[in-house]
Design a protein that fits this description.
The chain is of the alpha+beta class. It is 62% helix and 13% strand.
């Protein structure tokens, strides 16, 4: 039913207009027959059919010709003038070839000794036709507005989905290069760590390819991927990098948009540890309670570098866009920079 009413395919449009025309003629014929004294229904049906041709012709002419030509160009005066003149001309034409029984049966008080084809009746008929055409225009543009609104919602949804996929498919290439370099170095010395690193690297890549395309993933899986990522990065830094990660509350049965927390952890390495030739550190904490997750990421800043909130804001701009799309009005993201430390606090309402 919804497809029949709103589909713009030609077969549906023709079917809608045909059914509307038949119903209009039939209903008005019944009304005319109920108020007529001695006229046959078939005769009145033909009379109504003739009148309906003028009414609908006036309506289609207005909707598909006058409105696009004049109103789309904001020529309101000329639209009103041509609209009324067209109605007046069609009224005179209709009354000249249509039987006067229609008016004498419906509104006999309008009939006078001068006949029905006079200036007064033409004005009355123009008023009636214009009123019905006005209703047709309202119905037409209401339907068009509903269709346009529906299409706009569909397009907006598709845009958000495409934008979301683009944002969450982002994966920093420096991590890939660093990991490949680490694997190459480990392979040269035949290290026992090589298979384990390859296994963790495979899981991180698999997560970025498969789970990243989902709307939600288990929080536990996101944290496991972060742990694999940290252990891979730890190989590059060795013992000079200190990392602490605390998990509080129950993370079971909790789901989160993929790569939300990972982006914050990756930011700690990219803008913190990677620039610190000394002894960098990273502290991570996750707390889950009552459908809310609170995540905090802190990292050291080398003495030679200065914390720049604007710089970090740009680095997390895509994350903010994702949060706006996935968790509108359900998140708080705060950044805080000091001389030797940078921190990010994220609060998400998961339910």
């Amino acid at each position: 039913m919804n497809k029949f009413l709103f589909d713009t395919a030609l077969k549906y449009r023709i079917s809608r207009h045909m059914i509307f025309f038949v119903l209009l003629v039939f209903i008005f014929s019944l009304v005319l027959f109920s108020r007529s004294i001695d006229q046959e229904f078939l005769f009145l049906l033909k009379l109504t059919f003739t009148n309906a041709l003028f009414f609908l012709g006036y309506g289609y002419l207005t909707i598909f010709v006058l409105i696009p030509v004049f109103l789309s160009e904001r020529k309101y005066f000329w639209f009103g003038l041509v609209f009324l003149l067209t109605g007046f001309f069609l009224s005179a034409l209709k009354l000249s070839i249509s039987d006067f029984i229609f008016y004498t049966s419906i509104s006999p008080e309008y009939l006078s000794s001068k006949g029905i084809l006079n200036f007064r009746y033409i004005l009355i008929n123009t008023k009636d036709m214009s009123f019905i055409v006005g209703l047709m225009v309202i119905v037409k543009f209401t339907k068009d507005w509903l269709i346009a609104e529906k299409q706009q919602n569909v397009l907006q949804k598709k845009y958000e989905e495409l934008n979301l996929r683009l944002l969450q498919s982002h994966f920093e290439p420096h991590f890939l290069f660093n990991t490949l370099n680490n694997l190459y170095a480990l392979s040269l010395i035949n290290s026992d760590k090589t298979p384990d690193v390859i296994r963790k690297f495979k899981r991180v890549l698999q997560f970025s390819i498969t789970e990243a395309q989902l709307k939600r993933v288990p929080l536990k899986k996101e944290l496991e991927m972060i742990q694999d990522f940290i252990e891979i990065e730890q190989i590059r830094y060795g013992d000079r990098l200190r990392i602490e990660m605390k998990t509080m509350g129950s993370i079971e049965n909790q789901e989160i948009a993929p790569f939300i927390l990972f982006t914050l952890v990756e930011n700690c390495f990219k803008h913190g540890s990677s620039k610190d030739a000394g002894s960098p550190w990273i502290n991570l904490s996750v707390r889950c309670e009552k459908g809310t997750i609170r995540f905090e990421a802190k990292n050291s800043i080398p003495t030679k570098c200065q914390s720049n909130l604007v710089f970090h804001e740009k680095g997390l701009a895509k994350l903010r866009q994702r949060l706006e799309l996935v968790y509108p009005k359900k998140y708080i993201l705060n950044l805080k920079g000091e001389s030797m430390e940078f921190s990010v606090q994220l609060e998400l309402i998961l339910s």
